[in-house]
């Protein structure tokens, strides 16, 4: 039997749709690499805050866009993210970064820098890679072998995100979570540089009524079908 073709899989969608959990699981089960692009924008935001850059000033953020050295590990069993050699996997999930990341990620110079890192990671992933984010299928990797767009109802997304935060210092009410997600959606969808959008050729999966395992299996099926098609095309 011929070798399994290496695919680039782009999984986009807003927060709370199960994007990260699904992407990591699919990559792990299929022996592929995994890239959390949102973590890269959070890492850039952490650096700005850590270095006293006004994240509400696009010009200041743009001027510093090329300074942080961001390195992403792509092992789905333990993805890592460092900035200038410092492990920032925990602090980038804190409320300060969360509150500033939309503004920072909207700056074109930041998006250009991070997009370059993402494309480089995708090109160097020998066994194939699952790349998750908000503009992967439309801007970063428009020629990806498979594009998937995950969506879910506002209620389902808020419930999932609240569940993720339960018991942490970031715990908030369901309504507050829903409002925060709505604000993030508005910011991501309306920004001029690479807004959140579904690629025309993406497969949409509504995860509202699905378990995580059901979503994972649907995506795995799509990936395997695309692998089979690519294998036959090159036979």
What would you say the CATH architecture is? 3-Layer(aba) Sandwich
CATH class: Alpha Beta
Radius of gyration: 17 Å
Count of domains: 1
What is the strand arrangement across the widest sheet? 2-6-1-7-8
Largest sheet: 5 strands, parallel
Structure notes:
By secondary structure, this protein is α/β, with parallel strands linked by helices. The protein has one domain: Rossmann fold. Helices cover 50% and strands 14% of the residues. Strands 2-6-1-7-8 form a 5-stranded parallel sheet, sandwiched between helices. The protein has a 3-stranded antiparallel sheet with strand order 3-4-5, with helices on one face. Helix 2 crosses helix 4 and helix 2 packs across helix 5. The mean pLDDT is 89.
SSE layout and pairings?
Blueprint: E1 8-12, H1 19-30, E2 33-36, H2 37-50, H3 58-64, E3 70-72, E4 81-83, E5 86-87, H4 95-105, H5 108-123, E6 129-133, H6 136-140, E7 146-151, H7 154-165, H8 174-190, E8 203-206, H9 212-234
Parallel strand pairs: 1-6, 1-7, 2-6, 7-8
Antiparallel strand pairs: 3-4, 4-5
Helix pairs in contact: 1-9, 2-4, 2-5, 7-8
Brief sketch in words of this structure:
The chain is α/β, with parallel strands linked by helices.
Keywords:
single chain, 235 residues, alpha/beta, Rossmann fold, 5-stranded parallel β-sheet, 3-stranded antiparallel β-sheet, globular
